Amino acid sequence: AQSVAQPEDQVNVAEGNPLTVKCTYSVSGNPYLFWYVQYPNRGLQFLLKYITGDNLVKGSYGFEAEFNKSQTSFHLKKPSALVSDSALYFCAVRDRNSGAGSYQLTFGKGTKLSVIP
Amino acid sequence: ETGVTQTPRHLVMGMTNKKSLKCEQHLGHNAMYWYKQSAKKPLELMFVYNFKEQTENNSVPSRFSPECPNSSHLFLHLHTLQPEDSALYLCASSLQLNTGNTEAFFGQGTRLTVV
Q1: CB B94 within 8 A of CB B29
Q2: CB contact under 8 A, B6 and A43
Q3: Buried-state track A6-25, b at ≥16 Cβ within 10 A, e below 16
Q4: Which of A53, A90, B47, B102 is most exposed, with the fewest beta carbons within 10 Å of its own?
C-alpha cells in the first residue's frame, strides 16, 4: 500500500520569505513523487515531479522540491513567496514497482498556503 | 488551461434527478480518471479508463455510472444521489496507464450540490 502525509493543514508565510510545504510518503518500492497546486474553484495543476536522478527537482513558478529517500520526504520549497502563491498544495505518490496498480496516484489531504502581504 | 475541459462547472440537483457530467480532452491521452474531492479529505479515485476500457472501480456506489465512448470523452452519469455526494468532481487524463512517471492533467471540476 502507498500513502502520503501532509502534516500541516495550513502554512502561513510573509511575502518575500522562503516557504516550505511538507510531504512524507510511504511505498513498498521506489516512488514517483508529484506536487500539484489548486487555486480556488479550479482543478489541480501540475507543478513538478521526481522520477529519478538529481534529488532536487525544479518546477513551475519558481518552486522546487527535494527528494530525501532516508527521510521518505519530498518537501516543496520556494525561496521567496508571492501573494499569488496562496493556494492549496497536494503531494502525490505512485509506487513504480506496484505492477498492475502502478497507475494509481495517492494524494495527500492538501496544505493550504497563505502568503501574507 | 490544462487541455481537459469539464462541463458543467456547477450543478445543483435533487435526489431524484438524473444528470451527467462531461469531460473532454484533446491531448492525445489514452487514460482518463474520475476523482471526488470533498472538503478536508484526500482526493478519492473513483474510476479509471485506459483505451476506453474500465480498469478500476474503487468501490463506488452504483448511483455513479461512468461511460467512456472514446479516448477523448468521459462521462459520469448520476442518479438518485444523496446529499453526502455533494463535492467537487474532477476529471483527469494521462498518456496511458503503466507509464507511472507521467503526470495527470486535471479539468477545472464540476461543483455538485445535491439537495
Answers
A1: yes
A2: yes
A3: bebeebebeeeeebebbbbb
A4: A53
The count of residues in chain A is 117
**CA A40 to the chain's CA centroid:** 18
pLDDT in tens, A20-75: 999 999 988 889 999 999 998 788 999 999 998 899 999 999 999 999 999 999 99
Q: Is B104 on the interface with A (CB under 8 A)?
A: yes
Sort residue B80 into left (φ over 0), alpha (ψ -120 to 50) or beta.
left
Positive or negative, the CA dihedral A83, A80, A32, A1 is negative
Which one of B6, B50, B103 has the shortest CB-CB distance to A34?
Answer: B103
Q: What is the pLDDT of residue A103?
A: 63
Angle at B25 between CA A87 and CA B74, to 5 degrees: 100
Strands lying side by side in the sheet with B73-79: B4-7, B18-25, B73-79, B64-70
d(CA A74, CA A91): 8
Chain A contacts in chain B segment 28-57 (CB below 8 A): 31, 40-43, 45, 48, 50, 55-56
